[in-house]
């Protein structure tokens, strides 16, 4: 049954069906096979609704909305002008700033999808104008957003911590090292890319021009203040910060800059709703599919057959990495963590692995998986927001996935990348 | 964008709209229903309602979330139904949105292999895709109605709002049904028209911008 | 056959321990296999409940607090200071209560469920960023509670500002200071690491987290008498096991917390300190009678009679 399901899904996807159909078909086959008919399909509907219901997902439409208002008005451009005034003359400066912005935004929002939208939305047009190729830009945005999962706060780490009984504070600190390492790799790659593709640089801005840019950006600098100050200052949850950004963006564009009227507000809200629907139906269908996998205990069957108990530490770590990577290519990351972690828990303990290291590796794999074809949710989001074909969005991905996997391998052989800061902070 | 001769369209008004609007906002006043006569008027009306629900849903979500913050800090009182209201809104947005997206050919698909096929194969495939998608949507309409009725009979209440939980999911069968209807119409339109249609109002062919053709 | 059993916690938490024991017993005494589905693997609490109602799952563990959306009377377990703090009295109550064994089963049956047992999971404690000794200390404290009208009412009566928050955001919100407190049994505070982001544990003795195991009614009625006996025996064995397991669990969890974070204070309120908290129970009871469904009064009266009997015996 497993093969029939995955086979059907991939064929339907390649034939050009709307992407919800492979996911719906996969779960339909599963439900019919598991329950011997159509009798329990109402549970499939329940699961689709369960997929779109989590409160933390509300941050996604809110950030889409805020980013769209900022991009249509002046806020986004003024912020980017500010960045450009300082890094525009450097090779790859804009690309590196984009990766940095994804890291920072991801650090506070905790959502990879929200990062794709909020950072990618305003920065992509500028990068295209600056001479970067679209497939590079899309891949950079989608993959740099992964860092959101590693830098605290991270929902993935909280779930792992709860399921495995590991200290969440230690996990949070352990994620920082690998997160920054990924940022470093992406920055180096961006630099090399810019040099090899002769992406032009702007003339170096004078200090007077920079001062001017800062002045123009004063109002829009309220956004980072709301997000970073609001969340770390204990005023907002990430979801509330997203809604606060919407209202602040409306205040700036409708009242301060007078760039937006009610007609445009309506159009922006509608467009946000449309993108949200297109992405969320996939999240919902993905949840129904996850249910089938979970109910049929497919992971347990596959893992039961490979004899993980005989492996050493490295064998276990590689098996875990592969399992999570493959799992997240098809199924929602949170569900993968919930199902896989208890299965691996005994062997992790018996070979004496540090659960914090395992958690960091799992979080990294989960992040990579959500940006990886065929069914990564960040890819759906990028397609819906940027209105680019699927293939265009994933074309530039391989070098990034390669770098992410390289970090995963480095992490396995040099656990100190993750554990150094943890040991320092917790004096171990 | 330049269309090659293979998909050269008959440039009716809705075609131009579709081409221009692909990267821009959808102008609902220029939406032309795929249905004839009175049915077409009703359909265009539904399209307008969907659009309004999407926009209002998103705005309410922002206000609701902020109201909770304001309540917490200024009034020292959290709004307990805030989370449930957002749940209701996200369900509304998703299910009003999927049929609106189907109407305007906005559902995400992977078209790389599809685009490489010949015109006739593409046309046949589009009929199959639209018909199968419509069938899947109608199936889900039936079972979401089933789920809705089961919920109504169980009488589960939303803890904070203290209203029956099924009230917030009535959009689900409706959304699936209207989406199925759009795909069914798309299949028919592809059968009777000489061009390939992604939806009743959108010609196939992503807005292939210049760089893709290099 | 394969019987499927879903619950609201992880495999190594109390509901998971109960389920594991049940599985072990059923499989030892019959040809049936029991598959266990911990928290989240088949959806949220409300989802697994619906799946048990529609017969996809044969068994489900759901706490009455959640069941309250379906069976309002079940919320009686949120009335503070109703259940006794004394362990022997508590266990005696759960073993012998007429409310649990006679009044509740028909209410569950109306929802297509066979109520198999109810058991306590542990004394509910507050974890807060500031020490709590009286209701005054909760003034202005944003306290995360589940979205349940009675819990909200309880904490409002205690003087706090009850704040709803999805469980996934609680850890982060305590860390950044959006909220300053939450409540849970000790084992859950330990396993979910809530102590990492708070500094004080307070034991007001106001409640013991209760949960219930049920079966799909059609499934259960369709079992042979022999099979029903296997299920009942497994439930009884698991019940005794979990009562045994509980004794010491709270202290063990608190010791682990203390080891992991020596500066954590753990305070059991004295009877004198508890008095002002207890004084608020009456208002919550009134609220329960208002929203607790048709049988609210009957359930509450019977519970009180059962508790008096447990205290006397
Ligand atoms: Na993060
Ligand atoms: Na994925």
From TrEMBL, chain A:
Coarse class of the protein's main subcellular location: membrane
Transport as UniProt keyword:
yes
InterPro entries in UniProt: DctM, TRAP_DctM
Report membrane topology: Multi-pass membrane protein
The transmembrane segments are 12-36, 48-67, 135-160, 172-195, 216-235, 241-260, 272-296, 316-344, 356-386, 398-421
Keywords of this protein's UniProt record, alphabetized? Answer: Cell inner membrane, Cell membrane, Membrane, Transmembrane, Transmembrane helix, Transport
Q: Where in the cell is it found?
A: Cell inner membrane
Which segments constitute the TRAP C4-dicarboxylate transport system permease DctM subunit domain? 6-417
Write the signal peptide boundaries. Answer: none
Write down the superkingdom of origin.
Bacteria
Q: Which family does it belong to?
A: Belongs to the TRAP transporter large permease family.
What does the UniProt record say this protein does? Answer: Part of the tripartite ATP-independent periplasmic (TRAP) transport system.
Subunit composition?
A: The complex comprises the extracytoplasmic solute receptor protein and the two transmembrane proteins.
Name of the protein in question: TRAP transporter large permease protein
Native species of this protein?
Answer: Paracoccus marinaquae
From TrEMBL, chain B:
Keywords on this record?
Answer: Cell inner membrane, Cell membrane, Membrane, Transmembrane, Transmembrane helix, Transport
Instruction: List the signal peptide residues.
Output: none
Presence of the UniProt keyword Chloroplast in the record: no
The Tripartite ATP-independent periplasmic transporters DctQ component domain, residue ranges:
61-189
The coiled-coil regions, if any, are: none
User: Source organism's superkingdom?
Assistant: Bacteria
Membrane topology per record: Multi-pass membrane protein
Spans traversing the lipid bilayer:
51-73, 85-103, 124-145, 165-185
What is the annotated localization of this protein?
Cell inner membrane
Task: Tell me one Pfam family matched here.
Answer: DctQ
Q: What does this protein do?
A: Part of the tripartite ATP-independent periplasmic (TRAP) transport system.
> What is the similarity comment for this entry?
Belongs to the TRAP transporter small permease family.
Q: How does it assemble?
A: The complex comprises the extracytoplasmic solute receptor protein and the two transmembrane proteins.
Q: What is this protein called?
A: TRAP transporter small permease protein
Q: What is the lineage of its organism?
A: Bacteria, Pseudomonadati, Pseudomonadota, Alphaproteobacteria, Rhodobacterales
